[in-house]
Design a protein that fits this description.
The protein is an all-alpha fold. It has 7 helices and no strands.
Length: 170
């Protein structure tokens, strides 16, 4: 092999490796009926973390809570509901930009709780934002309460057919 060609190839590979971290190639799941930008997906994920903070409870599910919520909207909701949810998401982003002047991810847990309590307690709260927050909270709770850990350890649920108890006195 020609030395000059080898050095050129090595320089090209090194430059490519140096530029690769600068490319923000974060993959998010694609939902056919729920078009989201990566920033919106992250905002929903951060809202889920604020509504149901992580604890040391080992909940393992095939998908994340955010993926569960968006899959349920994608597969089970009408286009009108999806549009209402997305408009609530956009309105929530606008409120964060205009009124709070801070990104949701940069807020502390107390600030997030205060913000959410303001939405829940406000009498004239934006209907779209409340639809977005309420549905996110309800589906996140549904995902948590239908997890295997919750069902087995906290509800003492047994899958069918359960146990066979033979020779028992009545």
């Amino acid at each position: 092999m020609n030395r000059r060609k080898a050095i050129q190839s090595l320089a090209l590979i090194t430059a490519g490796a140096a530029l690769l971290p600068a490319c923000n190639v974060e993959k998010i799941p694609v939902f056919e009926n729920v078009p989201l930008e990566p920033s919106q997906y992250k905002l929903i994920d951060q809202l889920v973390q604020a509504l149901l903070p992580r604890t040391d409870t080992p909940i393992t599910t095939p998908e994340t809570t955010t993926d569960f919520i968006l899959t349920m909207f994608n597969d089970c909701r009408s286009p009108e509901d999806i549009e209402k949810y997305l408009s609530g998401l956009k309105a929530f982003e606008q409120v964060l930009k205009e009124q709070k002047k801070a990104a949701f991810k940069k807020m502390t847990a107390d600030q997030k709780n205060t913000l959410l309590n303001e939405f829940f307690e406000a009498e004239a709260a934006n209907e779209q934002i409340m639809y977005f927050i309420d549905n996110t909270r309800d589906m996140a709770t549904w995902h948590f309460t239908s997890s295997e850990y919750y069902m087995k350890n906290l509800l003492d649920f047994e899958f069918i057919p359960g146990r066979y108890i033979g020779c028992s006195e009545i």
